[in-house]
Amino acid sequence: MTISGVALLAICTLLGGLLGDLLGVALGVKANVGGVGIAMMFLIAARLWLVRHGILSHGLKTGVEFWGSFYIPIVVAMAAQQNVVAAAKGGPIVVIAGIGAVAVCFAMVALIGRFSGRVETMDEIEAREAEALAAPVPHFKSGRIG
Amino acid sequence: MIMMSHILAANALITAFAVVGILMWISGAISKYLTFGRIHASAIAIMLGLALAFWGGISTGGEKGVADLPALAGIGLMGGAMLRDFAIVATAFEVDVVHARKAGAIGAVALGLGTVVPFILGVFVAAAFGYTDAISMTTIGAGAVTYIVGPVTGAAIGASSPVIALSIATGVFKAVIVMIGTPFVAKMIGLNNPRSAMVFGGLMGTVSGVSGGLAATDRRLVPYGALTATFHTGLGCLVAPSILYFAVRAITGG
């Protein structure tokens, strides 16, 4: 059923939010500490459990994946309601601090990438998985269903 | 005309779906015919969204972009924290645990650097613009981390309202540059695999910037970047008003 996927997603999101708030209280900060991240962990764990027990139905997947695919439109809606006028009026301090922070971080992504050696690109991973699917011999794939 | 706007306002969220959908179609056409696919449709859609927000802010004088127009109030719900978090969590469903585990330690390093490095940079810029008190410098530095860490930190340590506004603007501007700039530098910084996406998410931090930027670069990388980025704001809210503030205060002496 599609609703089981949406409900699973909702329960994970709510549980994560609750734990994030509790963590914030425990640490004495006025913030939700990693609630979304915790919820993502729950969802990943739930998916592994469902796959392992062979009860990951098509409907359940549809329910979760619909919201996942809805993400970009939601980001567009989020951009459309930012206070862009205030950000533009903020003056040079905003521009310099913003550009500086991004430039330094871009450089660090490149540096960490260089120092930690080569890994498979997304295209290579998909090509390998497609090959594995096409191969006639049964192939074990870790926790991922095709 | 009045009936039309009544229907739009009464079905606010449905209107938002239609408006964003039309925006995505227009972006798709611009991407295909004007940039020949060089700039991804999602990046154009986000830029159009920001341009609309600028126009909405000027015409209404409000703070919530187009969501301040009564007929488009649904944009506020669609792009608000509730549905945004719901959709971010859903992207975790596609995360390949094996790859995520590989990037565990390096993701943690990126998270730490992504909090401290922009903070230090923001503090120096604040100092260069004549802010000498530890509270203002810390708040602007926190804004350079993300636009959520900025105001949370400012409120926690008692910064003045203009300084808090400045820190939000810095964070928003950073998110915007990440959204727009990522597709252009993606090749240069090796952003084509799950591990670099996690490093990227940890370093850049702002969930909106990271997911928007990655979506415009390669949709498949979004869950990996979002996974580390979501911890970024929590970590920032934790260390900026505490350890980092104490460090700035110790150096400036007040």
From TrEMBL, chain A:
Recorded coiled-coil stretches: none
One Pfam family from the record: MadL
Domain of life assignment: Bacteria
Membrane-crossing segments per the record: 30-50, 62-81, 93-112
Keyword Ligase among UniProt keywords: no
Assigned GO CC terms: membrane
Keyword line: Membrane, Transmembrane, Transmembrane helix
Listed name of the protein: Malonate transporter subunit MadL
UniProt source species: Bradyrhizobium japonicum
